[in-house]
Specification:
Order of helices and strands: EEEHEEEHHHEHEHEEHHHH
Radius of gyration: 21 Å
Helix content: 25-40%
Mean pLDDT: 90
Strand content: 15-25%
Low-confidence stretches: 249-259
Structural class: alpha/beta
Distance between the termini: 48 Å
Number of strands: 10
Number of helices: 10
Shape: globular
Length: about 260
């Protein structure tokens, strides 16, 4: 039995006017329940891919389907939520409550349901105590969790996180890891924090020069030293330690072993 495909991408190409071939014939399927980590160096196309999935950019060629329907550039899709890399780009209201309520209010929901969604999102992210505070008075970690709450209030089926652990202190980073590990949503996460990806994701795609170089279980992809070096990445420290301390298969031949 195969899992349901939430996002299907076929032969996707994209170029900026001053930067051609950012994405080159990229094909990918994302299934319900995937916690997909997308890794690669700056400029490999991760954020561009996210903006195309959200309909912010128009593909040069190829197609994207979300829940079986083609993505139309410029058309808002409430099934997909994007948490920006910089929460200051996402938070703009006078209070946290108003910020989290913005999306459900603009979906035309009745006030009672808006209230329920905001309360639930604040509870899930542990930000209830911040509800009446101005977002610009919050710490970086608090802003990050409030930005996530704003997306959760939409109740999307797919949540995209662009560098979610960037600029977080260790305590907030750990809290975010626990939160994402428990999330029932389908997640797409781009990050240079490979230890973070290793802990949160159940699948990893490695991108390089606008194409997919590898796709598979996180430990297999991120622990492949030759593959990582080929794409100018490093094996995460925790996997290096495991590889270093794991028993290595014997290299002896029958004659060397005396049999």
């Amino acid at each position: 039995m195969t899992s349901t495909s939430i996002i299907t991408i076929r032969q996707l190409c994209f170029s900026y006017p001053d930067h051609p071939n950012v994405l080159q014939s990229l094909s990918l399927q994302i299934h319900a329940g995937d916690r997909l980590g997308i890794v690669g160096n700056n400029g490999c196309g991760k954020t561009t891919l996210f903006l195309l999935i959200c309909g912010v950019l128009t593909p040069t060629a190829g197609e994207i389907q979300v829940l079986g329907a083609p993505v139309q550039p410029g058309q808002f899709r409430s099934e997909v939520g994007l948490v920006f890399q910089n929460p200051d780009d996402q938070l703009f209201s006078a209070s946290v409550w108003e910020d989290v309520a913005f999306a459900p209010q603009n979906l035309g929901l009745p006030p009672e349901e808006v209230e329920q969604r905001v309360s639930r999102a604040l509870t899930l992210t542990g930000t209830e105590a911040l509800a009446q505070r101005p977002p610009h008075h919050l710490s970086g970690g608090e802003k990050r969790m409030v930005a996530i709450a704003g997306i959760l209030a939409m109740q999307p089926q797919v949540i995209i996180y662009d560098e979610p652990s960037a600029n977080l202190d260790l305590r907030t980073r750990r809290r975010l890891i626990r939160f994402l590990q428990q999330s029932p949503d389908t997640l797409l996460i781009s990050s240079h924090d490979l230890e973070f990806v290793l802990e949160v994701c159940n699948r990893v795609v490695l991108m390089d020069q606008g194409t997919i170089a590898a796709d598979g279980p996180p430990a297999c992809i991120l622990g492949d030293a030759a593959l990582m070096a080929q794409h100018d990445l490093e094996v995460p420290q925790s996997l290096r330690y495991i590889l270093k301390t794991s028993p290595q298969p014997s290299q002896s031949t029958p004659s060397e072993s005396g049999y």
